[in-house]
Amino acid sequence: MIRLEMLSENGEVVPLFYDQHTSRLLDKDGFKAVDYTNNPMYDPEPSQRRPFIAVDYDQPGRKVREVRKLKIQLGLGCNKSCSYCLQAIQVQKAAATSTRDASEFLANIDGWIVNPEGMEKVELWGGEPLLYWKKIEILAPALITKFPNAQFSIITNGELLTREIVDQLKAWNFSLTISHDGPGQAVRGDDPFEDPHKFAMIQYAQKTFHPRFSFNAVLTPKSHDVNAIIDWFHDYFPGCNVGFEGVVHSYASDPASIFSIEQLAQFSDTLSRQLADGSALRSPAIMDKLRRSVNSFVNEQSSKTLFQKCGMDMPEYLAVDLKGNVMTCQNVGANGNHKIGHVSDFENIALNTSKHWSKRPECQSCPVLQLCQGACMYQGGDNWTHSCNAEFFYNLAFFRAALFILTGRWLVGFSGDIVRPKLKKDRDVEVR
Ligand code: SF4
Ligand code: SF4
């Protein structure tokens, strides 16, 4: 049990006790601290969710042919060089693919996917996916026919948009996201908002795709004031959908991705207040994350059903390239240790590059486990420690705000048997 110090309006600090594995909140006498039965989110008969699979390097996860989410990596090439890019260290490891591979990919797909009606999402990924437009023109019409119930989406940096591309993606019924860090864009290089032609295309895309359009920002050491980021986009596009890809992870120990602990504490405190006063909820993605945080308490969500947040440990989520290589996820290349199999030998695909959160003592003991779900499953060493620290403070803001909504009290401290990771600077940084 984790002891939470909760400050009341009258200045009194009252302890509550929280179990991160059952999401139960108890008072000092062991009784339920809050009666949720009148909460609109309360579900008296929650649907049974299946248990997680404890994937580890020596306990590989499997994939199933009934794919529900298909992430197709078109290539890892990009026309930008964002300083914190997690794919940058993988570019040389991507298998080179051609438009011919795209045609062969389509010709073979019936051989390895069953139940195409069950496909829920198809995502086309780069690098920068619009660099691979010719492949998209081959793939998209066929995949739309093949997977009639799937939602199709693409995330681009927006630099290569043209009217024709926007119109075609719209005709194929894609949703469109532009990755852009708003006031923090400088760490990603030139800002397309400052180029009149590129900005006009972004305007056209926003108008064409609304409401299935969002700008997605990454929270970084240089730019992590959620309200400032929302305001920045709203100045250009009043009321537009501002999403957040979350807090930056560290993949190459680059300074652009590493917060200091002091910075994180301040960021967490500011975000908690922006959540509690509602100002950050102008972002639908932030609103949704807070709603899920509250829900974990109200429906006493068990950790036994928690997969990783990105879902790539799930058997039905598959990342492939156009050669049919299966990878840990869409962000890594198949010519390194992240190739976990091939669609032609489906039963032998083995996710042996990653660690489920239940295999990490830090996550097992973590107060924000239910909200974070373990950061990146394939990271290790100091990179994982940096990412974990960032996730810890980011999720602590939602944890605090959810507690405030449910109890009217403000979390001012916590204690318990909590294992936090430590930097191992004297060891080689492990990047699996
Ligand atoms: S914050 Fe760190 S320890 Fe906690 S669940 Fe996330 S990755 Fe695990
Ligand atoms: S394993 Fe998940 S969290 Fe890690 S890089 Fe891939 S998609 Fe992102």
Automatic annotation (TrEMBL):
Residues 62-279 form the Radical SAM core domain. Its cofactor is [4Fe-4S] cluster. Keywords: Iron, Iron-sulfur, Metal-binding, S-adenosyl-L-methionine. Transmembrane segments: none annotated. It holds the Pfam family Radical_SAM. InterPro entries: 4Fe4S-binding_SPASM_dom, Aldolase_TIM, rSAM, rSAM_sf, Sulphatase_maturase_rSAM. Belongs to the radical SAM superfamily. Anaerobic sulfatase-maturating enzyme family. NCBIfam families: rSAM_more_4Fe4S. This is Radical SAM core domain-containing protein. It comes from Bradyrhizobium elkanii. The lineage of its organism: Bacteria, Pseudomonadati, Pseudomonadota, Alphaproteobacteria, Hyphomicrobiales.
